[in-house]
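Give me the 3D structure for DUF3558 domain-containing protein.
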Amino acid sequence: MHQPPQGYGQGPGHGPPPGQGYGQQPGYGPPQPGYGPPPGYGPPGYGPPPKKKKTGLIVGLIVGGVVLLGLGIPGGIFASEYYSSVGKAPVSQQPPAECTLSPELLSKTFTNSFQGVRDNEIKAGDIVTKQQGCSWLPPESDNVHDRALQITVYRYEGPNAEKRASESSPGSAAPSERQQQVQGIGEKAVLVSLDTDSAFSGAELRVTQGVYVVIVTYKGWDKGFFTNSPIPPAESAEVAKSVGAELVKNLPR
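Predicted structure for DUF3558 domain-containing protein (253 residues):
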């Protein structure tokens, strides 16, 4: 309890007259300035409880919104990139006989959108080398298999055409440890791995058959939401061999 300081008690002319039963009991003088409840608040235990401050709630909502916005923008960018097409619409041109593949095989490669053919011819007197290049990409509806199938067919004409074909070495100049002989496709077939330390991967098959040299290149990667993945080596090797075998079987005689 606080005793009223001198000068703040009952002075002359203030309060009831002196006498027993009147006046302030010891220790119960009027409250000193600054010790009462603030304006608008009753004594402890009375009246409504003080209102809760909303500042913390508002700040929390703002911070939460900023965090969600920060998470949402990158997520939206990733989603937009992931769901974007990796393919392309096919051209109206049809592949030539040397590049023709069955729809069933093309569907297994995820590259059934034909992108055209390029022809080239090299002549040196009677010695002629004709070249046809064909390519396929995924259809526009594909947003994952970012792959490409390329076929190059060389036809040697003139003197010693078959010998020139068998001695030629067009295609990938990969080290020997990345190459392996393949039996049962053409007269001679070599499979070359195109796998790297990154997501870029694939396989290339080089086949010799009579006056023809056929090169099949299957390469690319699979797109992921955050990172890309390489084509499984067994899958790319199987595609290259299957395409090469079908092409050799259909070569003009």
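Residues 1-49 have pLDDT under 50 and may be disordered. Let me know if you want a second pass.
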